[in-house]
Amino acid sequence: MYKKIINGFIDHPLVTSIFVVDFLILLFHRPPFLFSLLMLGGLAVCCMYLGQKVAAFKE
Fold it and tell me: Is 55 left (phi over 0), alpha (psi -120 to 50) or beta?
């Protein structure tokens, strides 16, 4: 399962880098409220996209 997740991150480097940067900005920086809502929405979209592409539990 972990190998599929890591391969999914490697196969989609742009989405992975957007996910990591967005997560770290939201974690360590306090942007304005509306901007943080937009970033949280973008983070949810990245998670859903990667989850659909990786499909770790699908055999």
Answer: left
Residue 11 in domain:
yes
- Cα(43)–Cα(23) distance, integer angstroms: 7
Binning pLDDT at 50, 70 and 90, where does residue 4 land?
A: confident
Q: In the block, which residue shows the tokens 């592409």?
A: 53
Cα–Cα separations (whole angstroms), residue 16 to 19, 25, 27, 32: 5, 14, 16, 24
Query: In this structure, is residue 41 part of a structural domain?
Result: yes
Residue 31 domain flag: yes
Average pLDDT score over residue span 9-14: 88
